[in-house]
TrEMBL record:
Keywords: Ribonucleoprotein, Ribosomal protein, RNA-binding, rRNA-binding. One of its GO terms (biological process) is translation. Residues 46-77 are annotated as: Disordered. Transmembrane segments: none annotated. This is Large ribosomal subunit protein uL4. Part of the 50S ribosomal subunit. GO terms for cellular component: ribonucleoprotein complex; ribosome. Forms part of the polypeptide exit tunnel. It comes from the Bacteria. HAMAP family: Ribosomal_uL4_B (MF_01328_B). NCBIfam families: rplD_bact (TIGR03953). PANTHER family: 50S RIBOSOMAL PROTEIN L4, LARGE RIBOSOMAL SUBUNIT PROTEIN UL4M.
């Protein structure tokens, strides 16, 4: 698949890049995408939730009424879950929600997500650029030039570029990542993928294994 390379003002440079069919042109595997996104979201959960159970409640241990003769059910502890202020039955405990996926499945999921974006023509290739200083206005000008201002966009850099990253940090709709940080969730969560030309080689090399 050939895509024209544009500059930061959105004008064609006259060059084209050929995207690898092994990465951007496969038949998407929806189940692999589902599992990878599920794992990503599970890993975002802190798992620090906790409710006190019967043994952890502070309260008297005396038997609150006699065993027989009251005409009501027997009760031995004020900390019982059936009383107000008692412990919770099977309450949440701290846990890790993460689960393991093998590398081949995760690689297939990312290729599937990229192929879906390629099918939707939601990929833009921009020539390499840098900022001398962090400035949000400069980054907004780039988004305007590429026609993605106000849209959820993911800008993928070849190497981490601190000034470009800092310039984008205050904008809600756009996110800047390096090619090594690319994930299935982030690909699908964006309306447009903007690849800096220098990032393509590393992505295709990594996902073609």
């Amino acid at each position: 698949m050939e895509i024209a390379v544009v500059d930061i003002k959105g004008k064609e440079t006259g060059r084209k890049v050929n995207l690898s069919d092994a990465v951007f042109g496969i038949e998407p595997n929806n189940h692999a995408v589902y599992l990878d996104v599920k794992q990503y979201l599970a890993n975002q959960r802190q798992g620090t939730h906790k409710a006190k159970e019967r043994a952890e409640i502070a309260g008297s241990t005396r038997k609150i009424k006699k065993q027989k003769g009251t005409g009501t059910a027997r009760a031995g502890s004020i900390k019982s879950p059936i009383f107000k202020g008692g412990g919770r039955v099977f309450g949440p405990r701290p846990r890790n929600y993460g689960f393991k996926l093998n590398k081949n499945l995760k690689r297939l999921a990312r290729k599937s997500a990229l192929s879906l974006k390629a099918q939707d023509k939601a990929i833009i290739i921009v020539e390499d650029f840098q900022f001398d200083t962090p400035k949000t206005k400069n980054f907004i000008d780039v988004l305007k030039g590429l026609g993605v201002e106000g849209k959820k966009s993911l800008i993928v850099l070849g190497d981490s570029n601190k000034n470009v990253y800092l310039s984008s940090r205050n904008l809600k709709g756009s996110e800047v990542v390096s090619s090594s940080e690319l994930s299935t969730y982030k690909i699908l969560n964006a309306n447009n993928l903007v690849f800096v030309e220098g990032s393509l080689e590393g992505i295709e090399l990594n996902l073609s294994k």
